[in-house]
Amino acid sequence: MARSPHFIAYDWNHVQSRRTEVVSQLEVDADQLKNAVESQHGGTATLVQSVPVLETFEGKTVWEGVVHVFDLAGHPKATRVYAWSYELPNGKRRFFAVLQIQPINTPQDAVRAAIVAEQRAR
User: Fold this and answer.
1) Is 47 inside any structural domain?
2) SS3 sequence, 13-66?
3) Omega before residue 89 within 30° of 0, cis
4) pLDDT per residue as tens digits for the range 40-55
5) Of 6, 64, 69, 78, which sits most exposed with the smallest number of CB within 10 A?
6) What is the pTM of this model?
7) Domain span at residue 67?
8) Which of 6-15, 16-25, 56-65 has the highest mean pLDDT?
9) 81 closest CA partner among 28, 120, 116, 40
């Protein structure tokens, strides 16, 4: 059974070292995020809203930004997706598109799941 993103073990040193690059992200046009969603997951994405998200751990900000919420038509498992991006130190942009599938129900859940996935990939 998959672990809930609410019960994660953060590597605080890694999170703190990346805080500046993640928090100081530059926003991208919603059309770029729409293209990222459709290329990663297929279907047709329609922007519903943009939600500010502040993710903290032990009282410190580990991620802050805007998550764009899209309805997703034509996907076999999800009807909604959460998307955002940030600029990497090398100037390239990292795009995230997280499907709303249990246990992901909110933009905050999507951000937490992405943090966990990046931690596990290291």
Assistant:
1) yes
2) HHHHHHHHHHHCCCCCCHHHHHHHHHHHHCCEEEEEEEEEEEEEECCEEEEEEE
3) no
4) 999 999 999 999 999 9
5) 6
6) 0.77
7) 27-121
8) 56-65
9) 40
Residue 6 domain-assigned?
A: no
56-75 confidence digits (pLDDT tens): 888 999 889 999 999 999 99
Q: Does 74 fall in a domain? A: yes
Number of structural domains in the chain: 1
Rounded Cα distance, 117 and 98, in Å: 11
Would you call 80 helix, strand, or coil by DSSP?
strand
Structure tokens given for 77: 């498992």
Distance CA 77, CA 72 (A): 10
- State residue 46's pLDDT score: 98
